[in-house]
Amino acid sequence: MRIRKTRRGLALQAVAGINVVLLGMDMTAADCAGLLGFAIHRTDHTEGNAGWLCGMKTFEATDPGLGPEARYTTDRHPIQGFTWSDFSAKPDHRYTYRVQALRGTAAALEAYKEVEVEVRTESEFGGNHDVFFNRGAAASQEYQRRFEGIPPDPKNPLDPRWAWLSRHVMEAIVAFTGRAAGRGWGLRVAAYEFRLPAFAHELRKAHLRGADVKILHDGNANPPGDDGAVFPRDENRAVVAEARIKGLTRERVTRADVKQPPISHHKFIVLTKDGRAEAVLTGSTNFSLGGVFGQSNVVHCVDDPAVAQAYLDCWNKIARNPPHGELRDGFEARHPVPAGLPSPGTSVLLSPRRSLDALRWYAERAREAPRALFMTFAFGMNDEFKQVYRDGRAPLRYALLDKLLASGVRREQRPAAEAEMRALRALPQNRFAVGNLLATNRFDRWVRETLTGLNSHVRYIHTKFMLVDPLGRDPLVVTGSANFSEASTTANDENMLVIRGDTRVADLYVGEYMRLWNHYAFREWAAAQPHPSDAKFRHLDTSDRWWRGYFGDTERSRQRRYFSGAS
Fold it and tell me: What per-residue confidence (pLDDT) applies to 536?
């Protein structure tokens, strides 16, 4: 949900997701004279507690010197920014957020404006759309604090590290599978990576309950790795064998007529009742340890028989390994690209297709975004979207990338490709962030971070979604398995949900997007510092300058206006 209130010139908009509440504040520049920051108080009506929320920065004059992992209440050391997110929010809780604008001195702060809003975070289950983001912060200060950076124990499924990293993604997969309660129920699984033993055993349990379970996984004869194994086929086969479910599986071979076939990149489960589609679980999450517990991913469940039927039809088509051309013709005919905006509601686009029309349609929707655009790129940015970020309509355009360049860019092409991306980043409308971690201790009071080791190729950002004006009245969310690339459009098995006009879904996605964007934007900046271990801690500003960059023709000014709900 979202709500906006203004009191005595201080505006506050709260956008409540499941685990994130995004706050946007706004005041006139004249009212900001002397502003030292914002204090944020939260009352949790569900659990019956209240207190000032905390940040990491302090005033030099009142710094208590508590060390690199300390947190400081914002009534004493306020937030110097016009957007802030509460990442400690819990699902289906009622909260009141009270924001004060503070001035005076570090030792004698005075609240001169105040506004509050009441919100309820979304429930994890029970809607037509249930959306689950894993932690996705492959390296984080919180993981260091809780677990000292130690990777989870692969031999202990009850290791609390797994649950913290999953953030209910694994639980959502198990719960969805568990809905196949017995005879009459069915599950149809399409998986690129079927390398998650716990999931395989849940499917076996469903089968033993009497459910009709059929599993399709990538079986292409891809070039072997250094160890001679074919990825992901050989590991898929090993998990099937270990779970004793070979009789429930088929191998999907996208093309038997080429040496290096496209990949069967789906990650979905269809729930059926008496042979009819009931619901579908889809998203970017591979059924693997790295997919669920490592890189950023989303599981998106849709309880809509028409949408689920499109996925069931897809499963039935690809299960018999038809000729590639037949599949492309069928998907183009059954799922045509809309002319302009899609109809309100939820629709589906499937690949492979004959042409790039679907990719160009995504790019056109991004180019026409009226106020803001948010996209993720796991494997570099396609030329269609480089053009969007070069001359798109939106005055605020975010991009979140796993790497600045795709891994396939040849060495001799890299200087020009990097220069092109730097030029895009320099445009005032664009705000880019690239996956990274803090590789040194005591940078700006932060501690060194390490990765879990669950991912090697895509370590940080694996989601594939686009948000067109998500805080507007008519948002567009595109999400699924496809990487906004030519291969994902004309070659691979892929699926995308297209959701128009659902503000709840848009709120869930934009809050999580900004959680990840803020996380990685800082880490990328920190990694670019020449001597981060020698960097001096920067205290909160007392010179009355910090807020000036949030006004005028700047990216921060656009951010302030958009997230605060200013017209």
Answer: 62
